[in-house]
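Course assignment 3, question 2. Fill in each field.
Student: A.L.
Task: Predict the tertiary structure for the chain below.
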Amino acid sequence: MHDNRLTCLVPTHNRPQFLRRLMSFFVEVQPQFLIRIIDSSEGSAATENRSIVDGVSHQLQVDYQNIVQPFYEKLSTGLASVTSPFVTMCADDDCLFPETVTRSVDFLEHEPTYESAMGHKALLNTTKKFWPGSLKVLKGYSIDSESVLDRCRLMATQWYSNFYAVYRTPTLLHNFRIVAANSSPKSLPQLPEMLMSQFSVLRGRAKVLPMMYSIWQRHETNWTNMVAKALQSQPELHYEQFRACLLEQMQLTGIDRAEAEHLIGDWYGHYRFPEMAKLKCRLSVGEQLSRSVRGFAERLEDFIRPDQVRHCRSVRSCDLAGCRSTWQAAVNVIRQFPQGIPKPASHLKRSA
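Answer field:
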C-alpha cells in the first residue's frame, strides 16, 4: 500500500552505477513511499539514469526529473513539486531503511514541536577487511531543548549530520531556498551543510530514534572531494556570506545578536582557513599505540554508558531491531558492488 505522507528525493549527478545499485536495493526492500530521482546529469549519463528508473517503475513508486542546476538550487526546484507533507532525501550511494523512515514520519505526525526525525546512520568502509572495524554507527542524538539558542549551541558543539532526516516539507523547502540564495558552487562544501544543520534546530527540535536509519559508504568520490573542494579560492568571502546568513536567521527567531555572533565565531570561525583541511600528520608508533588504547577505553565506556555521545561506535544488536533483513540487504549490496553496479545491469534484472 502506497504511503502518500512522504516523498523520498534522490539527488544524483553522473553516477548511474550508484543509482543502479540503490534501485536494486529498493527493489529488494520494497519501500511504500514515492521515490523521486532528481538528476542534474546531461547527455548519456542522463539517458542511462532515466533508463534505470524506467526499468524499475513497475516494481517501485518512482519517477524521474532532470534538473540541470547546482546542487541546492536543484533540490529547491525538486522540493517545490513535492505534495506530500513529509520529505526525506537519500544520496545515490547510500541505503535508506524504509521501516525507520516510516517510524520517523509517525513520530513527526504526533510531535508538532519537532521539525526533523531520523534514526542512527552507519558508516561502511569497504576498503577495510576486518568486519568490526569497517562498520561504525555515527554520532547522533536528539536535540529537544525548549531554548532555540541552546539547540543551536548543542548542534554547533557536538555536530552531527541530519541532512538526510525526515522533515516537514515546507520547512525543508524554506531552508533549501535560503541556503541556495546564500551559497554558490564555489563555496566551501561544509558551510551549506552547517547552515542546514543549524536551520533544522532553529525551526524546531530534532529527534534521533533508537534504530538504524541508513548506511553511508565511504569511498573516493564522497570523501577526498570534500578536502579538494575545501581549497577553493576566497574562503573569507564564503565564510562571511555564511556568517551573515546564519546571523540573520538566528536573530529572526529571537536570539540576541551578540550571543549569535559569539556562537558563530567560536564554532565556525575556523572555516575562514580551509587550508587546515589539507594538513596531515604522520602518527608515531607511540601515538598509534595511544590511539588504540583510547579506542579500547571508548568501546568499554560505550558498553557501560550507552548514551554517551561519541563520533562513532560499534553496531549493537538493538540498532537492528525491526530492520535486520534491510540491514543485511544494504550491507550485502554495498560490499558486493562498492563502486556501484555498472552496465549491463544483470544484477538488477536478477533482483527484479
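Instructor remarks: The longest strand covers residues 205-218. The CA atoms of residues 119 and 213 lie 5 Å apart.
Grade: pending
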